[in-house]
Each structure stands twice: as C-alpha cells, then as structure tokens.
Amino acid sequence: SAVDIAMVFVLVSPYLVMQGYAALSVSIFISLVIIALFAFYISVIQDDNFRRIISQMIMISIITAVLSFIAGNLLSLLPKA
C-alpha cells in the first residue's frame, strides 16, 4: 500500500542525505517513533497497556534485525560465483 511505501522511504531517506553511523542513528530513531505511534494506536483501539505493546514490538524488531544481520553475515561467507 501507499503507507508501506512511504514508511520505507522515510526509513531509507537518512541514507540519501547522510553517511555511516549518523544515517543509521537517524533511521533507528525514526523506526522507534513509528513503532511508538503504532503501539499507541493499537493500545487505544484495543484498550490495552501501551508499555506492554511497545516492548513487544521493539523486541520483535530487535530480534528481526539480529537474525537478519546473522543471515547476512552467513551468506557473505558463501563462495562467490
């Protein structure tokens, strides 16, 4: 959807204007803001605890990032064709 494409653009945009750790830091900050907004929306709609929802969402994001990092490193060890 258009929202998904917009979120990807927002998360990638720091890399278009910055380099290295500065872009990474801004991208992580933006992702945390997006997660917080979405968690707040869900907690209001479901009348649930915001802290529980945001902690679950952040843990899922961290686990996904770590697994992606490990998979990328393992794939980089494969011989080049």
Explain the overall architecture.
The structure is a single chain. With 81 residues, the chain is mainly α. Helix content is 86%, strand content 0%. The protein contains three helices and no strands. The radius of gyration is 16 Å and the shape is extended. The relative contact order is 0.07.
Summarize the structure.
This protein is an all-alpha fold and 81 residues long. It has helices spanning 2-17, 20-46, 50-76. It is built from 3 helices and no strands.
How do the helices and strands line up, and which of them pair or pack?
Blueprint lengths: L1 H16 L2 H27 L3 H27 L5
**Element order: H for helix, E for strand:** HHH
Regions with little confidence, pLDDT below 50 for 5+ residues: none
Structural class: mainly alpha
Count of DSSP strands: 0
Largest sheet: none
Key terms:
extended, mainly alpha
